[in-house]
């Protein structure tokens, strides 16, 4: 398979590139002119730099590939969400339209479980009818709708992966990097007892799943949307796993479940973070497992490797 990865220098995108290479595929990694591609080049990946919003450049680089992977992302929970977000909406539309025009067989979109609302404490699968309440949730759904619409209209197979929140190496700004920072400062947040459950996944398994989706036989009538998780835990258990990896039991910052807006600000906590830490966020990924994909990494393996990587990079030049 000849694959091309957009967003290849990002946290998850870098793992998609790595796992495609390990699976023996021919990979082109696309990067902006300003991106640091040293790690990709050390891996022996063919790196192409371009102006991502230039239709001619995008068409030229996509031409001849079998599968396009879109791992680009820009919006964050703490940033203003624009309806026509340049990366999530405009770039995704350009990539999908161009891929279809170039005869690409599959377009695989890295999405997120952030699209799911907080109205259920029960395990959630692909059939769950989410009702977004935060702008970033609607943004994720709109991006998916763009990919599915273009695929349906052009006949290009469109596939969407919604992975659980990730833990892994080469992390800079994910939830785990933030939780690790609170752990280091003895301010690990525990809302009530920390018993709220959460599904997480090792970033290597996200990369493996994305590579697998490039060649699997999609069943007839399958909508091509897949949830992925690696393991279920709780916020308290995650703290214990970090304790074990670091070799230190960090102090906890105990937070009540019900907070006023003023209290949220005093804890430097967003409403989204409050909902995340107080609602069971368990995913049901039986669909992709029944088709033959299985994750490999445990909670402790993911945490141990991520912590080691974060600590090593604190003593060296940060990964870009």
Describe the structure.
- This protein is of the alpha/beta class and 320 residues long.
- It has a domain at 2-167 and 200-229 and 283-295: 3-Layer(aba) Sandwich (Rossmann fold), CATH 3.40.50.
- Helices cover 40% and strands 18% of the residues.
- The protein has helices at residues 11-22, 38-42, 55-62, 86-101, 135-154, 175-184, 203-213, 235-246, 261-266, 271-278, 286-290, 299-314, and strands spanning 2-6, 26-31, 46-49, 67-70, 106-110, 157-163, 165-167, 188-191, 197-202, 225-228, 231-234, 252-255.
- Strands 3-2-1-4-5-6-10 form a 7-stranded parallel sheet, sandwiched between helices. A 3-stranded mixed sheet has the order 7-9-11. It has a two-stranded parallel sheet with strand order 8-12.
- Helix 3 crosses helix 4.
- The longest helix is centred in the middle third of the chain and has 20 residues, at 135-154.
- The chain is globular and about 55 Å long.
- InterPro entries: Epimerase_deHydtase, NAD(P)-bd_dom_sf, NAD(P)-dependent_oxidoreduct.
- This is NAD(P)-dependent oxidoreductase.
- One of its GO terms (molecular function) is aldehyde dehydrogenase (NAD+) activity.
Key features of this structure:
320 residues, alpha/beta, 3-stranded mixed beta sheet, 12 helices, 18% strand
What is the strand and helix layout of this fold?
Blueprint: E1 2-6, H1 11-22, E2 26-31, H2 38-42, E3 46-49, H3 55-62, E4 67-70, H4 86-101, E5 106-110, H5 135-154, E6 157-163, E7 165-167, H6 175-184, E8 188-191, E9 197-202, H7 203-213, E10 225-228, E11 231-234, H8 235-246, E12 252-255, H9 261-266, H10 271-278, H11 286-290, H12 299-314
Parallel strand pairs: 1-2, 1-4, 2-3, 4-5, 5-6, 6-10, 7-9, 8-12
Antiparallel strand pairs: 9-11
Helix pairs in contact: 1-7, 3-4, 4-5, 8-12
